[in-house]
Amino acid sequence: MIKTGFYIHFPFCRRGCFYCHFFKKKHRQLAADEYLGYLAREIRRRRDPGLLLDTVYIGGGSPSLLTPPQISALLETTAKNFPIDKKNEITLEANPEDLDAPQLKAFLRAGVNRLSIGVQSFQDRDLRCLKRTHSAAQALQAMEQAREAGFTNISLDLIIGLETQTSRSMERNFRQIETLKPAHVSVYILEGVPRQAADERDARLYFQARQSLLDLGYDHYEVSNFCRPGKASRHNLKYWKNQPYIGLGPSAAGFLDGRDYRNHPDLKKYYAGLDKGILPEQKTAPLQPDLRRIITGLRLLDGIPASAFKSFSAPSDFLLTEGFLIRKGKNIAVPADKILLLNEILGYFV
Ligand code: SF4
């Protein structure tokens, strides 16, 4: 049996955030119920007894708007159509304002064993700048309640590059991380929002964040991701290690049998495909396998086996000579101090 990841997209949010580029719609209970019916159809449509799910990731959107019975039903439908490995990682993305103690306990009982909480910052000024609907106090409370409910594997998302952020306010965020000790921290640079002198400032804040997390004992394993030893996101590692995963829901991407696919980023087209009994996929141009390995794998600080660069010796030799790539044992990687130049570096291969 082939170990496979399962990404489920829940494309509904209370309201859109101005900086977000994910596919999402305004949350309405009836629309969400209709959607879950179609999602179950897609799960059945993709049924494959040769695959063993060892990770499930429910992302969005705001999947913490799902009720515990809805999560249970979703995971039951999944388990009826795909065997789930005993040693599974089942992650739910959550917004702090959606969480409360009884619901967190019910999520855990339903099978969710990892939470990824979109804290963004522990400073109210930053949260107002992002126009988030939660406060710093709610972010702290969400973390505490999740721990009390029994979650031990918790990831927190932080955003950097806000106009309100300074080196000192960032430091306060990392003091909170030191106190809360989450298993995993993701640090995202605010993108697609014009800001003054953003690149230089973002880089300074990013490397400050990186150093703070290293000092606290986290491993920096991917551009935006840091973990306590052994606590890397098993699901997300599949994206970067060229391993198979099934994506479900509008806009979700999958990689199966060496083939990439993406579902229509459009609810109507997604429903229409399933009504016709076909997979709701849009056409995607295939990527040359080694190029795919390079594009996904160089995000990892450990890099990828040097063998992946065989048909790209001219650009890789140049980048190795110039110090934009380095050898790490049998792997080739981007050095940590150049990791924000990743897109420029990948430009040499495409
Ligand atoms: S809540 Fe999350 S997914 Fe929804 S719009 Fe905001 S950032 Fe995007």
- Cα(first) to Cα(last) distance is 34 Å
Instruction: Assign the CATH topology of the largest domain.
Output: TIM Barrel
Shape-level CATH architecture of the largest domain: Alpha-Beta Barrel
Runs in which pLDDT lies below 50 for 5 or more consecutive residues are: none
Helix content: 25-40%
Q: CATH homologous superfamily of the largest domain, by name?
A: Aldolase class I
Observed structural traits:
single chain, nine-stranded mixed β-sheet, 12 helices, globular, 17 strands, 2 domains, binds iron/sulfur cluster, three-stranded antiparallel β-sheet
Describe the structure.
Helix 1 (29-45) packs parallel to helix 2, helix 2 (68-81) runs parallel beside helix 3 (101-110) and helix 3 (101-110) crosses helix 5. It contains 12 helices and 17 strands. It is globular. 38% of the residues lie in helices and 24% in strands. It has helices at residues 29-45, 68-81, 101-110, 124-129, 136-149, 167-180, 198-215, 234-240, 267-275, 289-297, 313-322, 342-347; strands spanning 2-10, 12-13, 25-26, 51-60, 84-94, 114-120, 154-160, 184-189, 219-222, 225-227, 245-248, 253-256, 259-263, 281-282, 304-305, 326-328, 331-333. It has a 9-stranded mixed sheet, sandwiched between helices. A 3-stranded antiparallel sheet has the order 12-13-14, with no helix packed on it. A 3-stranded antiparallel sheet has the order 15-17-16. The protein folds into 2 domains: 2-239, TIM Barrel; 289-347, no CATH class.
